[in-house]
Amino acid sequence: MKARTGLSVCRARLQAGLALIRRGCRKGHRYKGALAAGWLAVLAAAPLLLLAGHNTRARAAIPFPQDEKPPAGNIQNGKKLYTSYGCFECHGRQAQGTVVVGPRLGPNPISFPAFGKYVRQPTGQMPPFTAKVTSDADLADIYAFLQSLPQPPKADSIPALK
After folding, report:
1. Which residue of 91, 132, 140, 153 could cross-link 71, Cys pair, CB 3.0 to 4.6 Å?
2. 51 CB-near residues (< 8 Å, 6+ apart)
């Protein structure tokens, strides 16, 4: 027997709720059918929400190896690679991140080992950049570019925000 995943269980519950709505509408019991279907929909969505929260906490708890000194890299080549690989499409031209897709990467990037591990084996929507695609030297150059980015101005120093 094939094991059921959380998504297939939720899908089955949602279909059962829709069947109740259809049956209730035919018998003239719209309110009871809609109420039962609403509860089934809530019960179907609850495990997904719990799993999503658990997955986020699990990702935040992943220990990354720390390194005191990142490898030296070429900032100009890193900027060129950041653009040519299309990193800017999700993370922005200055690695400032976007609300919709890519998180902020600069100007204070995570440690180089953590950066390399995530680039090679991402957990989100980002495609993996394996060693066949991006060499360790290229990663060091991109990391150097991210480190070179200037700090954004403080909010209280911007006249329009005062």
Report:
1. 140
2. 6
Q: At 77, which amino acid appears? A: N
> How far apart, in whole angstroms, are the C-alpha atoms of residue 137 and residue 59?
26
Please identify which residue in the block is written with the tokens 């695609």: 133
Provide the 8-state DSSP code for 107.
S
Residue carrying the six token digits 């094939």: 2
Q: Kindly report whether the global pTM for this prediction surpasses the value 0.85.
A: no
Answer yes or no: do 56 and 101 share one domain. no
Q: Are 123 and 113 in contact (CB under 8 A)?
A: no
> What is the tally of structural domains in the chain?
2
Note whether 79 and 33 are within 8 A (CB).
no
Give the single-character DSSP code of 70.
Answer: P
d(CA 80, CA 138): 10
CB 32 within 8 A of CB 17: no
Is residue 66 included in any domain, yes or no? no
Domain contains 159: no
- Closest C-alpha among 92, 7, 82 to residue 51: 7
